[in-house]
Amino acid sequence: MDHKLNGKTALVTGASGGQGAAEASLFAAAGAQVILSDIADDAGEATAAAIRDTGGNAEYRHLDVADEDNWRELIAVIAKENGSLNILVNNAGVPLRGGNITNTSLADWNRLMSVNLTGAFLGIREAAPLIRDSGGGAIVNTGSIAGLTGHFATAYSASKWGIRGITKSAAMELVDWGIRVNAVHPGLVHTPLVEESVDFVQALSDQTPMERGATSEEIAKVVLFLTCDDSSYITGHDIAVDGGFTDVGGYWRVLKQVMAQPDQRI
Ligand SMILES: NC(=O)c1ccc[n+]([C@@H]2O[C@H](COP(=O)([O-])OP(=O)(O)OC[C@H]3O[C@@H](n4cnc5c(N)ncnc54)[C@H](O)[C@@H]3O)[C@@H](O)[C@H]2O)c1
């Protein structure tokens, strides 16, 4: 492993498990000092300990991304105890399935927005000055293919479309501070977020050109790319990591269906 993040300090939200844990682990392997944060404290402590066991530099701190005071306190602690911050990954998110417009409660709408979108807003607002004062760096926001296409859960989809807007606005505003801001948009990823919904996982795998979901490590590698100097000329960008779901569109199904006919003509 190249030490592409040597000397960098990185904060990953929602890092107790799933993609956030994979990102924290990869960052540590790339030489970063990693701060894992989450509301699932026991799992977060265990994940940080597992990274340390492999020789990585990792610590866990509690952070509810929807809580403004939590953000202020954590950034102050990082400034005091770690001395710098170069990378922020706004990864924490909560799902909502079956939430079409007519049956979505205001409480569910507000919960989704507060974690998935307000969390990223607060993170950028609170962390950016410290990243600037640390010599600049990179922020990666976690969207979804639900923020690239229409989707069946209005609140989830709207929160992820919002991630695209905040990414582009922040990229514009923070470029003079030496901070790049990009978004990664995973398709199906095998994590606890989707594992309860077997039918959904099967259906989305079937509709994905690669006909499978991603591992968390496949997403983490793209996030590492967006945080290290390999992507030094990329900002404000959306990268789908989705096995071709959004870019190939429905034509791969058309092609497969037509080619399956004995006398196929395309
Ligand atoms: N798994 C997928 O198929 C998929 C697809 C597209 C996008 N995503 C997005 O990827 C991100 C990571 O999800 P994942 O798949 O690793 O799921 P996950 O459920 O494994 O991880 C999400 C983490 O966020 C934490 N979290 C929840 N609310 C929080 C809060 N208020 N403050 C801090 N942490 C909080 C959870 O405790 C958990 O550790 C999310 O933003 C999700 O929307 C996931």
Walk me through what this model shows:
The longest helix has 28 residues, at 106-133. The chain has 10 helices and 7 strands. It has one domain: Rossmann fold (3-Layer(aba) Sandwich), CATH 3.40.50. Strands 3-2-1-4-5-6-7 form a 7-stranded parallel sheet, with helices on both faces. It is an alpha/beta fold and 266 residues long. It has helices at 18-29, 41-53, 68-82, 106-133, 154-174, 192-195, 198-206, 216-227, 245-248, 251-259; strands at 9-12, 33-38, 57-62, 87-90, 137-142, 179-186, 238-241. α1 packs parallel to α2, α1 packs across α8 and α3 (68-82) packs parallel to α4 (106-133). The radius of gyration is 19 Å and the shape is globular. It binds nicotinamide-adenine-dinucleotide (NAD). Nicotinamide-adenine-dinucleotide binds next to α1 and α6.
In short:
This protein has 266 residues and is an alpha/beta fold. It is built from 10 helices and 7 strands. Helix 4 links the parallel strand 4 (87-90) and strand 5 (137-142).
Tell me what the CATH architecture is: 3-Layer(aba) Sandwich
Mean pLDDT, nearest integer? 95
Order of helices and strands: EHEHEHEHEHEHHHEHH
What is the CATH topology? Rossmann fold
- CATH class bucket: Alpha Beta
Taking pLDDT < 50 over at least 5 consecutive residues as the criterion, the unreliable ranges are none
Sketch the major β-sheet: 7 strands, parallel
| Category by helix and strand content | alpha/beta
Strand-residue proportion: 5-15%
Radius of gyration (Å): 19 Å
Oligomer: single chain
Overall strand count: 7
Ligands bound to this protein structure: nicotinamide-adenine-dinucleotide
Q: Tell me the strand order in the biggest sheet.
A: 3-2-1-4-5-6-7
Distance between the termini: 45 Å
Work out the helix count.
10
Q: Tell me the count of domains.
A: 1
Helix content: 40-55%
CATH superfamily: NAD(P)-binding Rossmann-like Domain
